[in-house]
């Protein structure tokens, strides 16, 4: 289990093991959420290169932003019909 010590200024160092697991880099924004007496640390933003291709399967070819927009517009048109 990773742990850290709170400084007099209320700061902690996120252990390297945790930073690596969450792929945290300098400048990343982190949200602290309090739920049921626990605090959850959630990274808020990732860069495009970090998330690019995360949702595509090996059998799917990459799609451009323009193609995604075209398909979304088509879906909206079909849903409203």
Describe this structure in words.
With 81 residues, the chain is an alpha+beta fold. The protein has a two-stranded antiparallel sheet. A hairpin with a 2-residue loop joins strand 1 and strand 2. It is elongated, with a radius of gyration of 20 Å. The termini are far apart. The relative contact order is 0.09.
Characterize the overall form: elongated
Reading side by side through the largest sheet, how are the strands ordered? 1-2
Q: Unreliable stretches, pLDDT < 50, 5 or more residues?
A: none
Total beta-strand segments: 2
Number of helices in the DSSP assignment: 3
What is the structural class?
alpha+beta
For the report, how would you describe the main beta sheet?
2 strands, antiparallel
Kindly provide the radius of gyration, computed on alpha-carbon positions and rounded to a whole number of angstroms.
20 Å
Average pLDDT level: 84
Distance between the termini: 54 Å
Order of helices and strands: HEEHH
Approximately how much beta-strand content do the residues carry? 5-15%
Fraction of residues in H or I helices: 25-40%
């Amino acid at each position: 289990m990773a742990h850290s010590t709170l400084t007099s200024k209320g700061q902690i160092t996120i252990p390297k093991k945790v930073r690596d697991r969450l792929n945290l880099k300098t400048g990343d924004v982190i949200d602290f959420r309090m739920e049921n007496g626990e605090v959850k640390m959630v990274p808020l933003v990732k860069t495009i290169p970090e998330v690019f291709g995360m949702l595509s399967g090996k059998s799917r070819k990459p799609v451009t932003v323009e193609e995604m927009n075209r398909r979304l517009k088509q879906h909206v048109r079909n849903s409203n019909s």
